[in-house]
Design brief:
This protein is mainly alpha-helical. The protein has two domains: 116 residues, no CATH class; 42 residues. It contains seven helices and no strands. The longest helix is centred in the N-terminal third of the chain and has 38 residues. Keywords: Signal. It holds the Pfam family DUF2059.
């Protein structure tokens, strides 16, 4: 009798565990999507895209100064529209959710949700877009400040290795 009950229990677990695992994975993905929403990750992606796009437009103007400001404005407007539409279709979340799933357990995702729903977490979300802009600007300024030092080092190294650039 005990053997029969044990066999039924094992059979039940074997047939139900794939369903349970699938439900767990769906629950984890639902929580990840909630986390993406409450953290404002998509806002940061928009800011990052806008910064990258601005650099791209500046490069276009350097290479093709004949391109009118109207064309650049159209590029900016359409870029923003494409990004917004893609985010609204859930394409950004679909790309980043697996990264969250790979790096965090379901329990950790739940803890992150609790944090981001707390007063401090809400503050982090509120200040992150502006901080992102400021941090990107500071990083860009820092990188530009290295230009002269880099040029000097390369010149010294080329001289040391007896290489003439020009």
């Amino acid at each position: 009798m005990k053997k029969t009950i044990f066999i039924y229990a094992v059979a039940y677990l074997l047939t139900c565990s794939p369903v349970y695992a699938e439900e767990q994975q769906l629950n984890k993905m639902d929580n990840i999507l909630k986390l993406i929403e409450i953290t404002g990750v998509t806002k940061a992606a928009v800011i990052s895209s806008e910064t990258t796009s601005e650099d791209y437009y500046n490069q276009i103007k350097k290479v093709r100064p004949d391109i009118s400001d109207q064309i650049i404005q159209i590029l900016k407007e359409e870029s923003k529209a494409v990004i917004k539409d893609s985010i609204n279709r859930g394409e950004y979340a679909a790309k980043v959710a697996p990264v969250w799933a790979k790096n965090y357990t379901e329990s950790e995702i739940s803890e992150l949700i609790k944090f981001y729903e707390s007063p401090l977490g809400k503050k982090v979300v509120a200040v992150t877009p502006q901080m992102t802009k400021e941090l990107l600007a500071a990083g860009e300024e820092w990188q530009k400040s290295l230009g002269e030092e880099l040029a000097n080092r390369v010149d010294r190294r080329l001289l040391k290795e007896n290489i003439q650039l020009w």
